[in-house]
Write a structure and sequence with these properties.
- The complex is a heterodimer.
- By secondary structure, chain A is mainly alpha-helical.
- Chain A has one domain (2-117, 145-278): ABC transporter involved in vitamin B12 uptake, BtuC (Orthogonal Bundle), CATH 1.10.3470.
- Helices cover 72% and strands 3% of the residues of chain A.
- A two-stranded antiparallel ribbon of chain A has the order 1-2.
- By secondary structure, chain B is mostly helical.
- Chain B is globular and about 60 Å long.
- Chain B has two domains: 4-302, ABC transporter involved in vitamin B12 uptake, BtuC (Orthogonal Bundle), CATH 1.10.3470; 303-343.
- Chain B is built from 16 helices and two strands.
- The longest helix of chain B is centred in the middle third of the chain and has 27 residues, at 204-230.
- Classes of the chains: A mainly alpha, B mainly alpha.
Chain lengths: 292, 343
């Protein structure tokens, strides 16, 4: 029982970070109907950026978030303009899978060239600190990471619901044609939407190095994890991605703490299969349109 | 595809393939040919699902791994009697993978396009996790070895080469028959609009499962030949996302839903891949170059080489007849179709 509850605590804290990564990916899908297979590579890239900022300039990974999000936002916009916009509409869904995978490979190649392929992790003074509450251990880094993720998701919520740009994004998600008719600049929304998705990857990635050791190939693990989360929540639903992130991380952590860490990746696949059998469009997915 | 010239093309192609080893080619050339064939068969097999039904499976490498581990496990429990024995077992491995593929397809194909891609890529990573974790079966990260085949070193590659040529013949034969049959039409209907296809009485689920099973069966047989050729397999190479992506890319490059496209794509890309690996050595620059080629192909030739060329030839022919005959009523119709082709 103790290890079960400990697993739940760990899972919820980690799940917050996964929810942040996945919300960006599901946002990109909602806006553009593009599955960004490079989301994981973008997370790892910003983990390396945070690592570099920390080791060269002594900037704390949490303080590095504004820098990495700005950088990845620009990268996201560039990728959209250069590689996704030229795709023809009718086979965009099909080709964008391959294009974003190619971008993931490109980023992996660049990362292994710049930072080599050995494992890195970010070491801070508070890296090993933890609180013990009723006999359960709460790692400080994970707690901060969780709070940061919650804060970032809150900002994303405000951005989408309280600004003009957010309204344009939501309109595009609900009905792209009508949005265009009403004067929404769809190309700009696509570019900024992709950039925004990349920026959430950056915020989560900056603290990724505090939680896990990583190397350029780590993004492969994230691909299936993030995709399972957004399917579970329903493609295009940010609320679904948050729930999905928590469910996936908690189930993996429970399996890791009660069975074995090696089998934890299987937990979310089992969850995914059950969801697909019962409700193929995911927990919060709508039949045709995305919902934010 | 059009009767006699198509048949002649196939006969010439396979005769050429079969006679290649007798030219005393260097080992590295034969090795390159073996790998090109491996990818040509797998791309042709993937094309059956991805090209004809439009379901982009990203999980085929999992079945490649199933074949590879199947042959390794077979030799763990059976003493090898002759070097050709694994080739005799091939059809059984293919059948096993096909049967394994049916329930997987039944679940995965409940979903449509994007979600299907996700489910299959997740399947790939699950298979890799299993290969790493089931130490008793797969040897885990330490890998598993297969007795090296007792073929003479001078002609070591030849048996693999001929078996792969036969598999390519099988894959292309199945593709050819599919394109000429009602099955092909059903698949085209699924690709165009699955709900409408179901509405007019196409057995949507049946044809999808059938074609998926055949496709992964072929892929597993290639995996088995590969494992026997390498004689040592590790989880990260037997079940490699890059294999999936390579075969998808090859099919896209050559032309989806065509008979020769996947073979052409495999020939071009595998050659380029080996050249990059040879010139650039280290995996990092190689990966960057590969990704760059990948992006350029997607942006410049989104429909693939063969469909683009066919379109161009057709357009030129049509323009020729229109100019020669110059019958006024024919003009508008020709223009309409030309416009449609160009869009």
């Amino acid at each position: 029982m103790h290890s079960l509850i400990q697993g739940v605590i760990l899972g919820v804290l980690t799940g917050g970070v996964y929810a942040l990564m996945a919300s960006g990916q599901t946002l990109i899908f909602g806006v553009m109907k593009v599955l960004n297979l490079a989301q994981g590579a973008m997370v790892i890239l910003s983990a390396y950026l945070a690592y570099q900022l920390h080791s060269s300039f002594g900037i704390d990974p949490f303080a590095a978030i504004p820098i990495t999000t700005a950088g990845l936002f620009l990268l996201g916009v560039t990728v959209e303009v250069l590689f996704l916009r030229p795709l023809r509409r009718e086979d965009r869904a099909e080709l964008s899978l391959l294009v974003t995978f190619a971008i993931a490979l490109l980023l992996e190649g660049v990362m292994s060239l710049v930072w080599k392929t050995n494992y890195r992790s970010i070491d801070t003074s508070y890296a090993n600190g933890s609180w013990t509450v009723f006999g359960y251990q709460i790692t400080l880094v994970r707690l901060w990471a969780f709070l940061m993720s919650a804060g970032a998701l809150g900002l994303l919520y405000l951005l989408l619901n309280k600004t003009r740009f957010g309204r344009a994004v939501r309109a595009t998600v609900q009905n792209p044609e009508s949005a265009r008719l009403l004067g929404v600049e769809s190309t700009r929304v696509s570019a900024f939407g992709f950039g925004l998705g990349a920026a959430t990857a950056a915020a989560a990635g900056s603290v990724y190095g505090l939680l896990y050791a990583f190397y350029p190939g780590s993004h492969y693990d994230l691909i299936s994890l993030l995709l399972s989360i957004i399917i579970l929540g329903g493609l295009g639903s940010i609320g679904g991605a948050i729930i999905g992130g928590l469910v996936v991380a908690t189930s993996s952590a429970i399996v890791a703490s009660t069975v074995s860490a090696a089998w934890s990746p299987m937990a979310f696949f089992a969850v995914l299969i059950v969801v697909l059998l019962v409700r193929p469009r995911g927990l919060f997915g709508t039949a045709a349109r995305g919902a934010i | 595809m059009k009767g006699v010239p198509g048949m002649a093309r196939a006969v010439v192609f396979f005769a050429l393939l079969a006679s290649l080893p007798s030219f005393n080619l260097a080992h590295w050339v034969l090795n390159l040919l073996v790998f090109t064939l491996i990818y040509a068969v797998m791309s042709s097999a993937w094309n059956l699902v991805g090209g004809f039904t439009g379901y982009p499976s990203l999980g085929h490498a999992a079945f490649f791994g199933v074949g590879a581990y199947a042959v390794a496990l077979w030799f763990k429990h059976h003493a090898i009697t002759s070097g050709y024995e694994p080739f005799v077992v091939l059809p059984m491995i293919g059948l096993f993978a096909a049967v394994l593929g049916i329930p997987i397809a039944a679940i995965a194909m409940r979903t449509r396009f994007d979600v299907f891609a996700i489910v299959t890529i997740t399947l790939l990573f699950v298979a890799q996790t299993l290969a790493f974790n089931l130490h008793g079966l797969t040897g885990g990260a330490q890998g598993i070895s297969i007795t090296v085949a007792p073929f003479p070193p001078a002609t070591f590659e030849r048996p693999y080469y001929y078996v792969l040529v036969a598999l390519l013949g099988l894959a292309m034969g199945i593709t050819f028959l599919t394109m000429r049959s009602k099955l092909g039409l059903s698949l085209a209907a699924v690709r165009a609009d699955e709900d409408k296809a179901r509405g007019i009485g196409v057995r949507v689920t049946g044809v999808k499962l059938l074609v998926f099973a055949v496709s992964v069966g072929l892929t597993a047989m290639v995996g088995a030949v590969w494992a026997y050729y390498e004689s040592f397999i590790y989880p990260q190479f037997a079940i490699d996302p890059l294999i999936t992506i390579a075969i998808v890319l090859m099919t896209f490059l050559g032309g989806r839903g065509t008979l020769w496209g996947p073979v052409l794509g495999a020939g071009i890309l595998e050659g380029a891949q080996q050249l990059f690996a040879y010139w650039l050595g280290g995996s990092q620059v190689y990966l960057i170059a590969y990704a760059a080629v990948f992006l350029v192909i997607m942006l410049l030739l989104p429909r693939g080489i063969l469909p683009t060329i066919q379109d161009r030839i057709r357009r030129r022919r049509r323009r020729g007849t229109v100019n020669a005959v110059a019958v006024p009523p024919a003009l508008p119709r020709a223009e309409v179709t030309v416009g449609g082709g160009a869009a």
